[in-house]
Amino acid sequence: MSSTDKIENWPGRRIAFKSFATDLARRRAELGITDADIPRNSGTRRTASKKALLKAIKDAGGNW
Q: Which superkingdom heads the taxonomic lineage of this protein's source (predicted)?
């Protein structure tokens, strides 16, 4: 690990993921937002390789 990778060298704001996730879940619940309310990516700008990957997943029985 280089010295630039160490946490103590990070100049930006630090946010603990666990507390962020808890706060986000609380705020969504207060507003009545569910995962069904959040739109998925439309896919209008997908590359050919990404389209091929998603097709292969679908053909294998997956649903991405």
A: Bacteria
Per residue in 7-34, pLDDT tens?
A: 678 888 888 999 999 999 999 999 998 8
Count Cβ atoms below 10 Å from residue 33 Cβ, excluding itself: 13
pTM score of the predicted model? 0.46
Give the SS3 label for residue 12.
coil
Q: Per-domain residue ranges for the chain?
A: 1-40
Residue 61 zone, left/alpha/beta (φ > 0; ψ -120 to 50; rest): left
